[in-house]
Write a structure and sequence with these properties.
By secondary structure, this protein is an alpha/beta fold. It has a single domain, classed as Rossmann fold (3-Layer(aba) Sandwich). 47% of the residues lie in helices and 11% in strands. A five-stranded parallel beta sheet has the order 2-3-1-4-5, with helices on both faces. Helix 3 packs parallel to helix 12 and helix 4 packs across helix 12.
């Protein structure tokens, strides 16, 4: 065994957890953006494959408040088409929707051929906030945990690719992010009364998470845990994982040739009488 191998074994003596790695090895922004661009390029390839193949993909993001769901979704959607990558973030149900079958308002957002639908929170609201905050009955909650694996199995048997990600943020990091939202005037909108309550009820949400994972994590439709104390690594790791679990192929691209512009035939730009915005920058 060479010197390099001995050195590597010595380093492995104390394995780094996601938390210790995040604290000791802060990723440089240039490295992060370089890797992100590579992944976003692959997302565009995935998008083209989905359109050509007619694939249907559902990606669910769940997790504690301030876990970083929005940041991952933003980077996924940044360079892709909203007609191919559709983000669904539903508000609280209306009075009419409360009388429907619970899954009904989610089913209508499932993808057609060539679409990738990202749920920024999903039907799993029932297993989380609705259960913890008492917005649903205990019977409805129990039925949800029992019936959801069958519902997801029916989606998969119909050909939908279903990926479920749970973002796990630590207690101290969530507290830090909530304080940052209070101080930053551009982020205050992110801190709702429900967020404050989730901060208070940390262990209630922990128990709800544990019960949800125990009931709905199975071989056919597993949950994938994303450690998100380090936002940059969480985004890169999660997007890389999504790409690794969808059997997409690169579609050959033939660059189009831009046609020449038509002749003006005497057209001249008029002096428009409309108001122009001030050049402030």
């Amino acid at each position: 065994m060479g010197k390099g191998s001995k050195k590597k074994d010595k380093q492995k003596a104390v394995p780094a957890t996601p938390e210790t790695k995040a604290a000791s090895e802060k990723m440089k922004n240039k490295d992060y953006e370089r890797e992100m661009f590579k992944l976003q390029t692959e997302l565009v390839k995935l998008q083209e494959w989905a359109k050509v193949s007619g694939a249907r993909v559902v990606i669910i993001f769940e997790g504690r408040d301030a876990a970083g769901k929005g940041g991952i979704i933003k980077r996924i959607a940044e360079r892709t088409s909203p007609r191919s990558f559709r983000v669904v973030a539903l508000p609280a149900p209306t009075e009419r929707q409360k009388t429907q079958i619970y899954l009904q308002r989610y089913v209508e957002h499932l993808p057609a051929g060539g679409e990738i639908v990202i749920f920024d929170r999903s039907w799993y609201n029932r297993a989380g906030v609705e259960h913890v905050m008492g917005f649903c009955s205990k019977e409805s909650y129990t039925k949800f945990l029992k019936n959801t694996p069958n519902f997801e199995a029916s989606l998969i048997s119909d050909g939908i690719i279903l990926l479920k990600y749970w973002l796990e943020v630590g207690e101290k990091e969530q507290h830090k992010r909530f304080l940052a939202r209070i101080k930053d005037t551009s982020k205050r909108w992110k801190l709702s009364p429900m967020d404050l309550e989730s901060h208070r009820r940390w262990y209630d949400y922990s128990r709800a998470r544990d019960a949800m994972l125990a009931a709905t994590d199975n071989a056919l439709s597993p949950w994938y845990i994303v450690h998100s104390d380090d936002k940059k690594r969480a985004r890169l790791n999660c997007i890389a994982d999504i790409l690794s679990r969808i059997p997409y192929e690169e579609i050959p691209y033939k660059p189009p040739k831009l046609p020449p512009r038509q002749k003006s035939h005497g057209y001249e730009e008029p002096k428009l009488p409309h108001q122009e915005i001030p050049q402030r920058y």
